[in-house]
UniProtKB/TrEMBL annotation:
Protein name, entry field: Calcineurin-like phosphoesterase domain-containing protein
Phylogenetic lineage: Bacteria, Pseudomonadati, Bacteroidota, Saprospiria, Saprospirales
Superkingdom: Bacteria
GO molecular function, one term: phosphatase activity
One cellular component term from this protein's GO annotations in UniProt: cytoplasm
Organism name: Flavilitoribacter nigricans (strain ATCC 23147 / DSM 23189 / NBRC 102662 / NCIMB 1420 / SS-2)
Length: 257
């Protein structure tokens, strides 16, 4: 496998937008049949599409999406439309539940009088669907949200939206923690995790911090991929993809906001 020195992985913040700019870093030169993870798209449809182009996603790849497809950004409907179209077109996708999907589904069951303005980013999501209540979105979109599992395991990784509750014997029993947990790194149960690395999102993290964590992910047994795509703050405002097969990070500057 081609390995490059750390300084060739990315450029200094905030110019980390394309680590595939040189022929040497072209994704087509790495192993095919890749496993790729992306998280916390938050309604940024154009940015999501641009990142898929950047990683040169093919039907041979497996794409893992770790939740929070909706809210805050301008086109949540477009994000889910694209996910469903990729599935229909034969792309291999595994999509996980995020806390925003969980809240959205719970709201879809609520009576019309419930104060929806209390939920961050919901107004933008409803506007993208041109409706006033979560229950009014297309049935196939609600079915998609309802079908989402809380975590997934592959050969070398645990995939989850937020994290795990390591204070209990079996972290898989705490579904709430998987979509809401924060600040769990210090309590990681290495015996339970095994040789796998936990990939997750949920907590917006500066790109330089993600790169630092990337260098230590084997020791930490974790790597966060949420680079705060929807937040226009220096060091954030990027959507991140991680090629799990070749261990490559890709960053796409937000082009929706």
């Amino acid at each position: 496998m081609l390995r490059l020195p750390p300084h060739q992985i990315a450029h200094p913040v905030p110019k980390i937008t394309d680590i595939c700019g040189s022929p040497l870093l072209n994704p087509k030169l790495f192993k095919t049949m890749r496993q790729i993870a992306i998280t916390d798209i938050h309604g940024c449809h154009k940015t999501f599409r641009a990142l898929l182009d950047k990683v040169a996603l093919s039907r041979e790849d497996e794409l893992f999406l770790l939740g929070d497809y909706i809210d805050r950004g301008p086109d949540s409907k477009g994000v889910i439309d694209t996910i469903l179209k990729l599935k229909a077109d034969g792309y291999q996708l595994t999509c996980l539940l995020g806390n925003h999907e969980q809240m959205f589904f719970e709201l879809s069951l609520s009576p019309p009088g419930r104060p929806l303005y209390l939920y961050p980013g919901l107004a933008e999501t409803l506007a993208s669907y041109n409706c006033r209540h979560p229950k009014d979105i297309p049935p196939e979109h609600l079915e998609f949200i309802l079908s989402l599992p809380s975590c997934h395991r592959v050969e070398d990784y645990w995939l989850v939206h937020a994290g795990f509750n390591f204070s209990i014997p079996d972290p898989l029993e705490d579904q709430h923690a998987m979509i809401w947990e924060r600040h769990w790194y210090e309590s990681v149960n290495k015996e339970w995790v095994g040789r796998r690395i936990i990939l997750h999102g949920h907590t917006p993290t500066r790109v330089d911090e993600i790169l630092s964590m990337y260098e230590k992910m084997d020791d930490m047994s974790a790597l966060i991929l949420d680079s705060g795509c929807v937040f226009r703050v220096q060091g954030l405002n990027q959507l991140t993809a991680f090629d799990m097969t070749n261990r490559r990070l890709y960053f796409q500057q937000n082009i929706d906001l």
